[in-house]
Design brief:
alpha/beta; 6-stranded mixed sheet; elongated; Nucleotide-diphossugar_trans; Glyco_trans_2-like; Glycosyltransferase 2-like domain-containing protein; hexosyltransferase activity
Length: 336
């Protein structure tokens, strides 16, 4: 647990650890980045009675000094367990979390194990929460390029120490660096699996002080585009971008020039865009400027990079996609 602007939630978080039904040995490793050590130390006796040893380090300043990545690395490096369970100080574990994720990890030693969550306050980030809990096990690997970020969210992560060390430590760039996404992409890039325990094992808090709000959307976008090109588009000879609107055009403009040339068409359902017939890349230095056809989605051909937001059209987009009888991860990937 890295403690960073979360002292008001610590007691509930630590009670969740005391309440675990896992019967093996456990160690709590805390890095205190905001002067909350006294609160954590107040739980030492209760934790040790429960059989949980504790190691804690940090600094005495009330002002955070290290970024999230640095705090996570400190907490990992001072710990000794063969398995690592990542917990944010503002979230609460359900009693079965450790034992169910540990069991899953025994059979998936090179995978990142997540779980389903309950959002608090209830109803906050509804679309995101539905996505976290409901995408299929296969989609945990195919939907890694979407704007939602890691398909198992970091406060639910569990993995072997061996796998963590193989992937490497978290980026310590500090505020504004999406260290969880960078580590997740590195894990996937090294062939690591992504697995979710399909039970709600974490109360996942939403509040304005959360570190995730410090990361710029454009930073995330650029990382996603780079990973999509490296893992998918570089291997394709040609493809279609599904969405001739703002998001699809932005993706096109952000591609490398060699990958821009692979875009055979945009496709859409908007009759006005389709009637126009093409998209002109006005910023291009080429002459004549590239013009990419805009087709109705039924007239386009796979593979597709889909830049249409999921769960936003009352199921209309999802039905259109389903009608084409395509295979996700082969014929298309979601980007938005």
């Amino acid at each position: 647990i890295p403690v960073h602007n979360a002292s008001c939630w610590l007691d509930e978080c630590l009670q969740g650890i005391v309440d675990q039904d896992y019967t093996g040995s456990m160690e709590l490793s805390v890095y205190d980045d905001d002067g909350s050590r006294a609160i954590v130390e107040g739980w030492r006796e209760r934790l040790e009675r429960r059989g949980v040893s504790m190691v804690i380090s940090g600094h005495d300043s009330a002002q955070p000094r290290g970024g999230c990545g640095s705090c996570q690395n400190q907490a990992v490096s001072q710990s000794s367990g063969k398995y690592l369970c990542f917990q944010d100080a503002d979230d609460v574990m359900m009693p079965q979390r450790i034992h169910l994720q540990y069991e899953a990890c025994l059979f998936n030693s090179t995978s990142l194990i997540g779980c389903q969550v309950r959002r608090d306050p209830e109803g906050s980030t509804e679309r995101y929460t539905r996505w976290i809990n409901n995408i299929s096990q296969d989609q945990l690997s195919t939907q890694v390029y979407t704007s939602h970020g890691p398909t198992v969210i970091m406060p639910t992560w569990f993995c072997s120490r061996h796998w963590f060390q193989r992937v490497g430590t978290f980026d310590e760039g500090g505020k504004g660096v999406p260290e969880d996404l960078l580590w997740f992409y590195e894990s996937v890039g090294q062939g690591g699996g992504v697995v979710r325990v399909d039970q709600c094992l974490l109360v996942y808090r939403y509040h304005q002080q959360a570190a995730t709000h410090s990361v710029l959307e454009e930073t995330i976008w650029n990382l996603r585009v780079a990973f999509l090109q490296e893992r998918v588009i570089n291997q394709w000879e040609s493809f279609t971008i599904w969405n001739a609107g703002k998001q699809g055009r932005k993706l096109y403009r952000c591609l490398s020039s060699s990958n821009q040339k692979k875009v055979r068409a945009f496709c859409d359902v908007d009759e006005n865009k389709i009637k126009k017939g093409f998209y002109t890349y006005e910023e291009s230095k080429e002459r004549p400027k590239p013009q990419i056809p805009v087709l109705h989605y039924r007239d386009a051909s796979p593979p597709y990079i889909i830049c249409v937001k999921l769960d936003m059209t009352g199921g209309v987009f999802e039905e259109n996609l389903k009608s084409l009888h395509l295979e996700e991860g082969v014929d298309y990937y979601h980007f938005n």
